[in-house]
Amino acid sequence: MPDFPGRLAIIQRVLPSYRAPFFDALAGACVGGLTLFAGQPLPQESIATARQLQNANYQPVHNLHFLNPQSPFYFCYQRRLDLAAINPNALIVEANFRYLSSPAAIQWMKKRGRPVIGWGLGAPLDRGLLSGLRKRFLAQFDAMIAYSARGAEQYAACGIPVDKIFVAPNAVAPAPAFPMPEREQNPDRAPVALFVGRLQARKRIPSLLKACSLLPRQIQPRLVIVGDGPELETLKNLAIEIYPAAEFPGAKHGQELAPYFISADLFVLPGTGGLAVQEAMTYALPVIVAKGDGTQDDLVRAGNGWQIPPDDDTALAAALAEALGNFTRLRAMGKESYRIVSEEINLEKMISVFIQALSAAIPS
Description:
By secondary structure, this protein is an alpha/beta fold.
């Protein structure tokens, strides 16, 4: 992998724990090192954050939040954001005009003739004042990195030249370092459906329990729900009532999760979020996920899974029935999941795209 020869700075609103491995790995590709500026989320966001990095230099800043992040009028200002102390050769910032300290950081770099790259989910088309603010903000970047092909299309629709847009599919794990797990083609047991995540309302576990209960008895799975959260006791009581085949082993992390992935036949994520999807795919699992912000469009395809509309219990039940009704096809889809995360979407590929964008943005 080619390296970035200078010092890189990145500004994030927060540093989620799942993103720490990426920043540490990217730091290893920056000859002059990487400094990350990030603050803390609001308590109600329930974001697990990292407090330190292993390879990158973490510089905490103070976030001033205006309204709730779910509000269309949310803004954030970051204090103690000192680029001069780092003197970076290039800067990457979140492509979000709601972060009020970003324009000053961008101008600091521009005055010194140094490139600034935006990084984000995309830019949904809208009208009015906010649309104008977004387009003017995006026009400042020397290059744009999108999480997904859908995001890249949205940035292009905002007027960013296509040759300045790079797609780095969202990855939270490296390519698998182990052989693809082998599973029997026609197991003489009930199939195993697995969920991994925080147990909260937006994960739609009640819908998953209900959907399993409606399946024909011969394909009803042993449903393993790994995680903890505010909905745990409510979900246990609901399972007793409508789907006793559900199991709740509690929260598991790191290598504790491996036996659950290996013993499963299908991974299901019926609500929002999706950090465990890529990890499930490294264990050759086909997946059912709810459609979201576009980051899963490149990861979950017809060849390895199902994307269902959010909040659609009928679609969830239909996808489960289709998946569990044909084990031969299910195994083939699992193999495709493993191929995707081995060859296309992983931390190594993501870092490679970032280096490409940096190289393209640096004036020759």
